[in-house]
């Protein structure tokens, strides 16, 4: 842990570089470790504005809340994390502490036991002692992961950027997702030429050349399922597609849809589609769509099947023109969990694989990520060569780490020192890549055993390659 002087230096560095996310996150972590809880909370909130979906930040913020006995706020911060299948056991333990603080011993017990069954090392003797009884079948497991006690208020800073266009979005009652105007376009997406081309044909041309498409009886609209390893750039690509098209962008998270009350999730979904229809042309982006579109045969609860049926109905629209100009992009790391009904024509009928970047794409991503930084002469290809298995999100981590180090050096030197190739090479040593290899192994299992319909043909050469 840092001493007070070190902490002061970190505070100063963060003050000078308020947009440096890793630095702010590091400062928040140090404040939390030293027990400066109010200040840690403020830092995490500020970091969340920069990275609204960052799981580490949400977890840190929740811990700061729990330790200040702000249990409701902690649950609100944890809720999007708990909604994702396979959330970290540490998050489960935090949720248990918050639930216990709220007096909900039963659900706290469920969360705690579920967490330690997955990772016994997160056990907390004090918490275990306070949870008097083990869980009983009466309260059961959540119908969908993380559904109960969904909080109405999203954590601070969920909105993404300021609208670049002057036109005000049209709101819809009951829709919590926000309309964004994306400032990205395809030029901001490095590599992925095949994927961009596929989206251009499917999404952009029908809107840019409606007459031609109408001549063949085709309308603008419909959907694409983007799938691939986490961090490979699916969200980035969707946002860029919206910008390329000059369309509104709605980034729908699970927290915008899932609700503990029966019928409410369906209502939220309907309101979200309505929001997109009233703001067309619009790209409606569903992240982690496997949680909303799971195979109905896998479901134990009738009302979760209801949600899938509602999703299918919204994609089909009440009439032919309902979804004209609404492009649904859905992303998942686990496409094999998505109900096959979504692949029918007019729905998410084209699965598009977003692959991990090859060396040339990695160099291009690095070049893009560094473009607004003070730079020495750079050899991005050299960095690309030593970052095998790194996806876009990992490369962003490398650049952020290198910038953080450079900033500290610049503060000591009292003048800006440009970023250089050795800085990136050193940072690459300290960043562990996301689990692309593990993802490929899982994907191989699924596509080798269930590719009857040919849906995963595009993935075949990738999973057969050596990782
Ligand atoms: P996913 O949605 O697949 O998990 P993201 O779209 O969130 O991944 O990617 C994480 C970050 O990585 C993005 O915000 C972006 O900064 C960077 N990134 C990923 N792929 C690319 C790319 N092809 N070009 C430029 N930046 C990229």
Structure report:
The structure is a single chain. By secondary structure, the chain is of the alpha/beta class. The chain has three domains: about 5-130, Serine Threonine Protein Phosphatase 5, Tetratricopeptide repeat, CATH 1.25.40; about 180-355, P-loop containing nucleotide triphosphate hydrolases (Rossmann fold); about 360-430, Helicase, Ruva Protein, domain 3, CATH 1.10.8.60. Helices cover about 50% and strands about 5% of the residues. The chain has 20 helices and six strands. It has helices spanning about 5-15, 20-35, 35-50, 55-65, 70-80, 90-100, 105-120, 125-130, 195-210, 210-215, 235-245, 255, 265-280, 300-315, 360-370, 380-385, 390-415, 420-430, 435-450, 460-465; strands at about 180, 220-225, 250, 280-285, 325-330, 350-355. The chain has a six-stranded mixed sheet with strand order 1-3-4-5-2-6, with helices on both faces. Helix 14 links the parallel strand 4 and strand 5 (about 325-330). Helix 2 runs antiparallel to helix 3 and helix 3 (about 35-50) runs antiparallel to helix 4. The longest helix is centred in the last third of the chain and has 22 residues, at about 390-415. The protein is globular, with a radius of gyration of 23 Å. Mean pLDDT is about 85; it is low at about 135-165. The structure holds adenosine-5'-diphosphate. Adenosine-5'-diphosphate (ADP) binds near residues 331, 365, 393 and 396.
């Amino acid at each position: 842990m840092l001493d007070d002087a070190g902490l002061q230096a970190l505070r100063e560095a963060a003050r000078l570089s308020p947009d440096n996310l890793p630095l702010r996150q590091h400062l928040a972590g140090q404040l939390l470790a030293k027990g400066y809880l109010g200040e840690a909370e403020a830092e995490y909130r500020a970091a969340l504005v920069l990275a609204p979906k960052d799981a580490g930040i949400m977890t840190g913020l929740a811990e700061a809340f729990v330790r200040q006995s702000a249990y409701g706020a902690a649950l609100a911060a944890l809720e999007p994390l708990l909604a994702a299948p396979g959330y970290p056991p540490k998050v489960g333990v935090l949720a248990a502490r918050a639930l216990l603080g709220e007096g909900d011993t039963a659900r706290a017990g469920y969360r705690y036991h579920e967490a330690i069954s997955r990772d016994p090392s997160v056990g907390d003797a004090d918490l275990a002692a306070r949870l008097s009884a083990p869980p009983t079948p009466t309260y059961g497991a959540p119908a969908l992961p993380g559904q109960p006690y969904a909080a109405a208020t999203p954590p601070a800073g969920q909105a993404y950027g300021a609208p670049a266009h002057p036109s005000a979005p049209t709101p819809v009652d009951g829709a919590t997702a926000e309309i964004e105007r994306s400032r990205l376009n395809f030029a901001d997406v490095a590599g992925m030429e095949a994927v961009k081309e596929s989206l251009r044909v499917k999404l952009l041309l029908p809107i840019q050349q409606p007459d031609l498409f109408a001549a063949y009886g085709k309308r603008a609209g419909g959907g694409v399922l983007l799938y691939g390893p986490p961090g490979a750039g699916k969200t980035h690509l969707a946002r860029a597609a919206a910008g390329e098209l000059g369309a509104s962008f709605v980034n729908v998270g699970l927290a915008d849809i899932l609700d503990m009350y029966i019928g409410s999730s369906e209502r939220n979904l309907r309101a979200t589609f309505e929001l997109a229809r009233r703001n067309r042309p619009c790209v409606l982006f569903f992240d982690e769509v496997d949680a909303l579109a799971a195979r109905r045969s896998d479901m134990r609860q009738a009302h979760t099947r209801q949600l899938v049926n509602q999703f299918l109905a919204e994609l089909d629209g009440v009439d032919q023109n309902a979804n004209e100009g609404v492009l649904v992009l859905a992303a998942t790391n686990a496409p094999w969990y998505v109900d096959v009904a979504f692949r029918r024509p007019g729905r998410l009928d084209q699965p598009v694989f977003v692959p991990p970047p090859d060396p040339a794409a990695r160099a291009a991503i690095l070049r893009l990520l560094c473009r607004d930084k003070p730079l020495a002469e750079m050899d991005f290809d050299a960095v690309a060569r030593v970052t095998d298995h790194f996806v876009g999100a990992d490369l962003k981590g490398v650049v952020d780490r290198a910038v953080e180090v450079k900033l500290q050096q610049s503060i000591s030197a009292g003048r800006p020192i440009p970023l250089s190739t050795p800085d990136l090479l050193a940072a690459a040593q300290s960043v562990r890549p996301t689990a692309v290899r593990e993802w490929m192994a899982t994907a191989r299992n699924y596509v080798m055993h269930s590719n009857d319909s040919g849906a995963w043909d595009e993935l075949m050469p990738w999973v057969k390659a050596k990782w």
